[in-house]
Every structure is written in C-alpha cells, then in structure tokens.
Amino acid sequence: MTRSLDAELVLDAHARVGEGPVWDDANGTLVWVDIMGRAVHRYDPVRNDDRAIDVGQPVGAAVLRSNGNGLVLALRDGFGMLDERSGAVELVAPVEADVPTNRMNDGKCDPAGRFWAGTMATDELTRGAGALYRLDPDLQVRRMVDGITLSNGLDWSLDGREMYYIDSPTHGLDVFDFHLQDGSLGARRRLISIPRDEGLPDGMTVDAEGGLWVALHGSGTIRRYLADGTVDCIVHVPPPMVTCCAFGGPDLTDLYITTMREGLSAEASRAQPLAGALFVCRPGVRGRPPYRFAA
Ligand code: CA
Question: Is 202 a catalytic residue?
C-alpha cells in the first residue's frame, strides 16, 4: 500500500528557483541553491538561520568537498570553486562557452568523488541542446552524454554499479550501467516512466534502502519508487512546483524539499504564497551521506 505524508514548512525562503539540497554533516547545515537568484544558501536548522552568498550568475548545483574547503558549483558558465568565507568564485572548467543560450543545471558527486552535472537551454525548449558532464578531481571536464534536453536529477545505486538519471522532458527516469573505477557509462535503459498527469520528473535522491525519491514538478508531490517502478510513498508539498529533495538532519531522517516560484503569474503567486520555500518531512527511511568532490 502506498503511504501518504505531508511535508511541513521549514523556511519561507521565497526563492526564485530553489534547488539542489545537500546535507553537510560536518556542521549540520543544509546547502541549497537558488538558481535564478544566483545564490548559494546554507540553512542551519538548529538556529533556524539561512545565509546566502551571491555567486554572480545562475547556479544549478553545489557539492561539498572532501577537504572541507568551500564548495564546487555548476554555474551557468561551467564548473567553479566557491570560497565561502570571501564569497569569491573561480571558474575552473568552462562548459559550453560557445553556447550562450545554455546553462548548467542539477548535479551531484559519484561515489568516487567526481562531480556530474548537465546543461539545458535557458528557454527549456531546444530539444537535445544539452549534455551531461563529469568534472574529475584533477579539474578535467569530460562530456559524457549528448542529446540531453533538460538535464536534471541523478544519483547512484547502493552498490555503485548503476547511475540513475532524469532528462525531464523524456517523462521518466533512466538507468546507466556505471563503472565506478574509471567513471565510464555503459548501456542506458528506461527504468520508470512517469505519466504526464503525475508531474514532470525533476530532482531525485536515493535512500539507504535503495528507494528512489523523485520530485514531480507541477504536482506538489515527491514520490518514492522502488526499483521495479512501484510507488511506495507519496509526500505532498503545498506549492506544485517542487524541484528536488535530499535527506539531512543528524540521523539523515529528514527529507528536505526545495520549491520554486519563477514564472508564476501575480494571481498564481497569491494562490501559492509558499512557492520558493523549503519544506521537510520524516518518512521513516534514512538517507545516505552525500558523496563529496574528491579534492
Ligand atoms: Ca531541477
């Protein structure tokens, strides 16, 4: 039987495009981004304190580093390093500098500490204009998958032998065979098809039992899928435009959920006062600590 849960408000952040939550267990804070707000946030749930750093351009994702020194970002112009103390951003690996209409979007580190992030056309319409990239710890960037339209959520199976991946307009979640040692991809296949009336697949995370939590944009729900495609749990979130989710908290039992308000009409904004806020629910499953960039 499918369980049903309601998420509760944590922070009325009013983000334009809240995205990319990642739990930093080194200091008990949640890093998240506001893509079009051009900001990287750190939220401290104990103090209920949120701090933002303006990074000067759209930022699709932020990942932690194994050396604990700042964050690595997927920026509009490519991969960059953020020094959180000074706020300085250094572009270390440009991506698609010849395609000004594209920007980087969602991203995450693999179990070996390589940073994967993809691109999308800023008009969200140009089919196949994007790609999925891999930034290695030596700061070399490689183009790994072509023909992507709106690169979005990704994560790895518990055994590290499969990579889950969402190109949103394909209305489903794919899985690649994954070779952990050299970070190469093998065969790709469709794992879960998601009917249009259930929302557009966006960000995702894998829990400690191998369940797949997928934000279904436009539906106000996060769904937990089992590997056979069965829906095991549905989390309801007030704003329809949910974007991503990640486990956090001291025991990794809090599922944090980001949302957005970009593109809403004035009337819709009034009807969705919490669009762009951060939410949480406790579904009774643990997450996994996020993988960090290995440099
Ligand atoms: Ca997204």
Answer: yes
